[in-house]
Design brief:
Layout: E1 2-6, H1 10-22, E2 26-30, H2 33-42, E3 47-50, H3 59-68, E4 75-79, H4 84-92, E5 97-100, H5 105-119, E6 126-129, E7 132-135, E8 140-143, E9 146-147, H6 152-163, E10 168-169, H7 171-178, H8 187-200, E11 206-211, E12 215-220
Parallel strand pairs: 1-2, 1-3, 3-4, 4-5
Antiparallel strand pairs: 6-7, 7-8, 8-9, 10-12, 11-12
Helix pairs in contact: 2-3, 6-8
Length: 226
């Protein structure tokens, strides 16, 4: 899952990003409103963490433009402005949640999990497909009672595939959700991650099928090709 973090305090942004990356999120950081607006126009994100007090363009204007483009990505406002008026303004412009600074990272992580669960229409904090289970609370994959050991990139690919289980996704779609701004996106690398994942999920009743010219699909062994 790819998150856009918009925060003009570089030290705070880097701290949050480091912690979220340790949870196997791909995190892009931008430090002003204009860069945020541009990123949201050209890239797809699973969630946005947005400060309101930004240089060049304030966070409310970024949010307003985002919603005017009919983009429904979940947005958590993160700001020092904890007044009722500030909260109401953000929610009225289309924010999904609001967290005032200072905050505990555990609360931010919990709010992220809630928004991702809502965005994916999940009634429970786990996703199961075949014998594979993904726990959104611990962000761990397991097969039966055995935890899967995955690299961050393998985790990102499998997470994207399980959210799209049964559907065909292209290499470019996977790249957009696996690589952040600081990475050099390489579609050929996706083939390597898929090859490794196929070995690691053997015996799970699930396979990653290659659909020539289209991409990949996570399917239960008894599923028909989409």
């Amino acid at each position: 899952m790819r998150i856009l973090l918009v925060e003009d305090n570089v030290e705070l942004a880097n701290w949050i990003a480091k912690l979220l990356r340790s949870d196997n999120f791909a995190v892009d950081c931008v430090y002003d409103g204009e860069d945020a607006d541009h990123a949201l126009r050209v890239h797809e994100f699973s969630l946005v963490i947005l400060d309101l007090s930004l240089p060049k363009m304030d966070g409310l204007e970024v949010l307003r433009r985002l919603r005017q483009r009919k983009n429904t990505v979940p947005v958590i406002i993160l700001t020092a402005n904890s007044s009722l008026r500030g909260r109401v303004s953000g929610l009225d412009e289309g924010a999904d949640d609001y967290l005032a600074k200072p905050f505990e990272i555990a609360e931010l992580e919990a709010r992220i999990r809630v928004q991702l669960r809502r965005a994916n229409n999940l009634a429970t904090p786990t996703i199961s497909y075949g014998d594979i289970t993904f726990d959104l609370r611990t962000r761990e994959f397991s097969i039966g009672d055995k935890t899967l050991t995955l690299t961050p990139r393998e985790h990102a690919v499998l997470e994207f595939l399980i959210h799209k289980a049964g559907k065909t996704v292209s290499k470019s779609q996977i790249c957009d959700n696996v690589f952040d701004f600081d990475d050099e996106a390489d579609q050929s690398a996706i083939e390597v991650y898929v090859h490794r994942l196929r070995k690691k999920i053997e015996g799970s009743g699930v396979q990653i099928k290659t659909l020539r010219g289209l991409g990949y699909a996570l399917q239960c062994n008894e599923d028909r090709e989409p």
